[in-house]
Fold these 2 entries.
Entry 1:
Amino acid sequence: EVSTDDPETAFRTLANREQLNPEEDSIHHCLYQFTCNETLTETNKLLCDVCTQRHCGPKNNISEKKCVYTNAKKQMLISLAPLILTLHLKRFQQAGFNLQKVNKHIKFPEVIDLAPFCTAKCKNVAEGNTKVLYSLYGVVEHCGTMRSGHYTAYVKMRALNNHLSDLVLRGQSQASETEPVKGQWFHISDTHVQPVSVSKVLSSQAYLLFYERLL
């Protein structure tokens, strides 16, 4: 969705992202980098229909050579906060002509706030809200290399999230809790299932993260 808002408000977020100061090797740092403001110049200039028509007249008189390209700013922000947030971490990098597995641990929290990464006009966030909170309920981990390995999962067994049900059924929520949904974590590897602590979950080498919306 291309925003045509005033430049002063087009890149405004629900919460001040500049106060984040995200820690290196954290999911907050990944999200911050992914949603950074970019300047498009030179060969990356944006084709501007308004500038082209202003310079060349009616659209049907415009040839490809007359198209006007202009410097622009680009930023990826969330315009609709999902009920279920899935974060997929890139676990490979180019190493010469080969791909190499990235085994670095990325820190991730039990409760994450997406507000610094949401547009100020996020469609399903109540006016005045400056928090968009999510609670962790699932993690997929990959152990091994690019050629072989094993997938395991951590899943939280918890009671029904009534706030999430309100969002699904009525499109609104009266949630006020900012704590993670209570429950017991389990580690699942093929047919083996065992209870684990939340600290064990948070120390895993996450490949996929699953969060459910709280607020």
Entry 2:
Amino acid sequence: SILLDDNSTFTGEKTALPNANSVRGFDVIDTIKTQVEAACSGVVSCADILAIVARASVVQLGGPTWTVLLGRRDSTTASLSAANNNIPSPASNLSALISSFTAHGLSTKDLVALSGGHTIGQARCTTFRARIYNESNIDTSFATSVKSSCPSAGGDNTLSPLDLATPTTFDNKYYTDLGNRKGLLHSDQQLFSGGSTNSQVTTYSANQNTFFTDFAAAMVKMGNISPLTGTSGQ
């Protein structure tokens, strides 16, 4: 449903706070869908395309592969409020993150593994400004370097990589960063801040294969959250 634009019957999810100026690449999916429709019309949903592209992207960047279960149908509606309420905020603390994932049948282990997706991608200055200027659980030199591109006022949409060392490689450096107090988002560093998830972060930091295995399993599990199938959806 995130692909749907606003129309007369609903306001879509693209302008929800966690998505606005953040989620990108819709044109890529549109292009793929156009080409797939030309090859075999009415067979492959956009939802399945998103699931396949997620895996392809991870593999292309050096990460693990997994079997993508297919047969999802597309939603015909979207919910701005659902996106605003259900997507965890970068300001979330550990208990809020655990609760958010648990509500969708995902374990704390899944939370830590899926957060490793932040080994790629970028975040806007507005999402981590409070952390780099106000928090103590952060490496001083790291905070200083990020401040150079994220001023205390202005520059809200300036981007910084979530993984400073290898921002375009799918690896376990995200967890190494957390161990060194170099998590960019508050919600990232919460995974290694003296709480129940510290040991799992340490494990992934030391063993990339374990992270890859758990990430792949969690992606399949997440892909099974209430998919539209059969006669539901489009």
